[in-house]
Amino acid sequence: MNNLFSDDLFNKLTSWENLLSAFQKANKGRRWRAEILSFTRNIIYNLVLVRSELLKQSYIHGNYYSFIVNDSKKRIIKAASFKDRIVHHALCNIIEPIFEKSFIYDSYACRKGKGVHKAILRLQHFLRLSSEGLNGKKFFCLKCDISKFFDNVDHNVLKQIIHKKISSPGVLWLIDLIIDSHNEQKGIPIGNLTSQLFANIYLNELDHFIKDRLGIKYYIRYMDPVRNYNLFNKLLNFKYVLYLCYFEFEN
Predict the structure, then answer these.
(1) Which of 29, 68, 21, 76 is closest to 47 using CA atoms?
(2) 95 neighbors 166 (Cβ within 8 angstroms)
(3) Cβ-proximal residues to 188 (8 Å cutoff; 6+ apart), any chain
(4) What is the pLDDT confidence band of residue 22, given thresholds at 50, 70 and 90?
(5) Buried b (16+ CB within 10 A) or exposed e, 65-99
(6) Is the dihedral of CA 160, 157, 224, 120 positive or negative?
């Protein structure tokens, strides 16, 4: 077993302050649910148990509860237990700031200070710049779609990307465990907080390829195939030519 007590990043993850913050975030807006009430009745004992399991690397991710959401498209949502959601928040509290620094500016999904409305404003800005710069000439907009994205995330590829950035043995153990909690080879569950971050980490490689290698100036990435599809479609007028990619994710 690794000497986790010399692992500074893992110590931050398992600190009381971080676990309490994770509990509060996982609890937000859901405190009256039976599972959460049961955990909260013995909160000190339960958080001590979670911390002990993490430190000893004896923590085992629980099973997911699956349900179907039909919001113009059928999607299978995987819900983790409250205990596991606390661990997810504890992990994201620590590693999200590390990866956030490497994300491109125009990645708008599941990031603080971003979101669909800012993505739309940015898209409108790009459209104006392109129209003015070309003096009324036609330009095109390329809208791309990654089909069944969450179901097809390659675990080994995702781990390799993360391992390039994180060296903490304890944190990597937990990350690998959460990635493999859904399926041993591919796919990350829609519904996990960690899946939102992992998706941005995974596609950050594509973002930098398009921006840095291909030199595409006007590029936006956003993930939300259902609720915001029409908002983007209203803005994407194909009589224009714009070197811009907006990615849609179908699940």
Answers:
(1) 21
(2) yes
(3) 150, 153, 158, 179, 182, 194, 195, 198, 199
(4) very high
(5) eeeeeeeeeebeebebebbbbbbbbbbbbbbbeeb
(6) positive
Q: Which phi and psi angles does 220 have, rounded to 5°?
A: -135, 140
Residue 78 contacts residue 66 (beta carbons within 8 Å): yes
- pLDDT category at 39 given cuts 50, 70, 90 is very high
Six-digit token pair at 86?
């606390």
Q: pLDDT tens across 124-183, in order?
A: 888 888 777 666 667 777 777 788 888 899 999 999 999 999 999 999 999 999 999 987
Dist CA 20 CA 15 (whole Å): 9
The pTM is what?
A: 0.82
Q: Which residues share a beta bridge with 109?
A: none
User: At CB < 8 A and 24+ separation, what contacts does 72-77 make?
Assistant: 72/226, 73/225, 73/226, 73/250, 75/190, 75/226, 75/251, 76/190, 76/251, 77/189, 77/190, 77/191
Place of tokens 């129209």: 131
DSSP summary character for residue 186: B
Q: How far is CA 46 from CA 29, 89, 127, in A?
A: 20, 16, 52
